[in-house]
Automatic annotation (TrEMBL):
Major enzyme class: hydrolase
Name of the protein this chain belongs to: inositol-phosphate phosphatase
UniProt-listed PROSITE patterns: IMP_1, IMP_2
Catalysed reactions, as listed in the record: a myo-inositol phosphate + H2O = myo-inositol + phosphate
InterPro entries hit by this protein: Inositol_monoP_metal-BS, Inositol_monophosphatase-like, Inositol_monophosphatase_CS
Species name: Rossellomorea oryzaecorticis
Alphabetically ordered keywords of this record: Hydrolase, Magnesium, Metal-binding
Record flagged with keyword GTP-binding: no
CDD domains, per database record: IMPase_like
Pfam family, one: Inositol_P
Amino acid sequence: MTKWEELDQNVRTWIMEAGKTIRESFKEELNIKTKSNRNDLVTNMDEATERYFIEKIRGTYKDHNILGEEGFGDELKELSGVTWIIDPIDGTMNFVHQQRNFAISIGVYENQVGVLGYIYDVVHDELYHAYRGSGAYMNDVKLPKLSDVPVEDSVIALNAQWMTTNKRIDPAVLAPLVQKVRGTRSYGSAAIEMAYIAAGRLDAYISMRLAPWDFAAGKILIEEVGGVVTDLEGKELDPLNKSSLFVGKPGLHETIMTDYLKR
Ligand code: IPD
Ligand code: CA
Ligand code: CA
Ligand code: CA
């Protein structure tokens, strides 16, 4: 077994175990706190799940680095060696309000390059995973390569907040796109939205501000099926910094970029 195959087996075991613990927590009372504002939630389960992964990783891979949303990992200034980028619960608001549509998201990078990506939709028991160069899977089903779709036949994911006055984008830029597409959706979990792109359930996804743990795994998954992952300006993502995100099917990504975003 190669080092990556062994690591893959370990992560899957840990993800399944963490998912089970989260599902079992539904019957218990949650401890909910707010972070940067009253809608930015964190629960005891976000923290416990991140701590669980960190304990497992530290116990097995002493020289690996960890970047976790809840801050129990390392403070990293650069990506060197093997780095785990973890969002213990992506979609905390959904976790709290709906008990569904949230995911565990883990990307494993070697230096700057994403090697393994996992997005586990805990309630639907769907594990999206990819190994760089070997394709992407949903549970045991290999995901087919993505192909172009016309804008007017596409379904894109977008949070309605970007269509109101906000400091990151003029809604007038997005309005013609929203008018042209077949439909828009918003799932409230960037990781699930990226997994859905990889699985062909969505054709593109736009977000104005995400953090490395939101997109680390999704980037690997989408690129493995031939999708395109950039920021809103069409530039490469920086795996250590916050940025906007624009992902989509090949062809469609370019069309939206030139006909709508860069006009
Ligand atoms: C959030 C979700 C949400 C996105 C936010 C993220 P969290 O992550 O991915 O869909 O719109 O920007 O912060 O806080 O639930 O892990
Ligand atoms: Ca959060
Ligand atoms: Ca997140
Ligand atoms: Ca989170």
